[in-house]
């Protein structure tokens, strides 16, 4: 591809050649359509626009060391998108349609898959929303599923360098029995005001507490949280966070490399006892946390004073990346090699 500075790509929208779409009408999904348009035609009374009937996914494809293209754990994203659809009463996308759409979008945009060794990858964004009209608050009868892709670099501009995070107590991203565990747009809308404030105050992201007791760590705006204490990988068990596929993979890798894994409530006051901390997700990969500033309590927790990630975060990161790039044996069969 001409003139893409692969090594300098930010995490963001990037125009590619094609996207794919399918419409749910009369109780069934239609044939996959290929489009070269970046826009969609949408009914002004679509439920997505008025009542937030919308969910999305994020997964990545990597050009490996051997030149092959690997898609990471797509079955988990398909499953989570079904769970999101159930949560807000949308038509579910069957696995066959999900993977066909994802692989078609990747293949049609093959020239945008970043070369091995550049640190960049192809981000795949499936989107599902209520496209049919309603004025009363009820589910649409028509849905649209689409997939676009974008070559991306690191989510946080620091890359694999410690980022500073702000713990917020005066905003919640999700209600205790609400939609925090599914990937719907409303959760992200709710996170924007505190995230913007954190950015303006010099922080890369925010860390939310559980909305009910305001006692336990929930997650960051776009990523799960983990802490390392001695030989343990500790990460919040919460019904109001997105079950991160990256975190699930890191828990397995942690076990594989001999760490103890603790999936449990993590009290905010425990932050002071961690040796390392990080944010993890498809976009964030592992973003080591340098320090956490508890804004309301005016307290700072520090994990990296030399600007470098801790040794365990580094090992986890290298193992995950190694598997995704075909450098390390994929013993749990997480990758699908695209032909
Ligand atoms: N938490 C939130 C709120 C997210 O948006 C994401 C990104 O998808 C994650 C966690 C990480 O999830 P995953 O590792 O499946 O990308
Ligand atoms: C992801 O990691 O895929 C995300 O969805 C994070 C963010 C861009 C919302």
Task: Characterize the structure shown.
By secondary structure, the protein is an alpha+beta fold. It folds into two domains: 6-152, Aminotransferase class 4, branched-chain amino acid transferase, N-terminal domain (D-amino Acid Aminotransferase, Chain A, domain 1), CATH 3.30.470.10; 163-324, D-amino Acid Aminotransferase, Chain A, domain 2. The chain has six helices and 18 strands. The protein has helices at 47-51, 74-87, 95-108, 185-200, 245-256, 311-324, and strands spanning 19-25, 28-29, 33-35, 54-56, 59-63, 69-72, 121-130, 143-152, 163-168, 205-209, 217-220, 224-229, 232-236, 260-264, 276-281, 285-294, 299-302, 335-338. Strands 1, 2, 3, 4, 5, 6, 7, 8 and 18 form a nine-stranded antiparallel beta sheet that branches. Strands 9, 10, 11, 12, 13, 14, 15, 16 and 17 form a nine-stranded mixed beta sheet that branches. Helix 5 (245-256) links the parallel strand 13 and strand 14. Pyridoxal-5'-phosphate is lined by residues 58, 219, 222-224, 242, 244-247, 281-282.
């Amino acid at each position: 591809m001409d003139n893409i500075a692969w090594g300098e790509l930010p995490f963001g929208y990037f125009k590619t050649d094609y996207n794919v779409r399918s419409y749910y009408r009369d109780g069934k999904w239609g044939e996959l359509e290929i489009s070269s348009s970046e826009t969609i035609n949408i009914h002004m009374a679509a439920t997505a626009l008025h009542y937030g009937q919308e969910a999305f996914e994020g997964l990545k494809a990597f050009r490996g060391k051997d030149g092959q293209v690997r898609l990471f754990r797509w079955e988990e994203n398909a499953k989570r998108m079904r769970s999101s659809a159930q949560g807000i009463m949308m038509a579910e996308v069957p696995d066959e349609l999900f993977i066909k759409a994802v692989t078609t979008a990747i293949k049609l945009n093959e020239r945008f898959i970043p070369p091995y060794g550049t640190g960049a990858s192809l981000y795949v964004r499936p989107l599902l929303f209520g496209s049919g009209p309603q004025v009363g608050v009820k589910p649409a009868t028509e849905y649209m599923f689409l997939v676009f892709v974008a070559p991306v670099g690191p989510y946080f501009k620091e890359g694999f360098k410690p980022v500073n995070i702000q713990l917020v107590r005066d905003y919640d991203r999700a209600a205790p029995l609400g939609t925090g565990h599914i990937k719907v747009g409303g959760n992200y809308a709710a996170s924007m005001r505190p995230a913007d404030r954190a950015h303006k105050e010099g922080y890369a992201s925010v860390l939310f507490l559980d909305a009910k007791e305001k006692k336990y760590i929930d997650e960051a705006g776009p990523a799960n949280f983990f802490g390392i204490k001695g030989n343990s990988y500790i990460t919040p068990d919460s019904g109001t966070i997105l079950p991160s596929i990256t975190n699930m993979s890191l828990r397995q890798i942690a076990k594989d490399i001999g760490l103890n894994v603790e999936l449990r409530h993590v009290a905010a006051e425990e932050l002071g006892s961690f040796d390392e901390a990080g944010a993890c997700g498809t976009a964030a990969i592992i973003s080591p946390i340098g320090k956490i500033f508890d804004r309301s309590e005016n307290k700072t927790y520090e994990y990296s004073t030399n600007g470098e990630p801790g040794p365990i975060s580094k090992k986890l990161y290298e193992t995950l990346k190694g598997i995704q790039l075909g450098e390390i044996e994929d013993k749990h069969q997480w990758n699908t090699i695209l032909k």
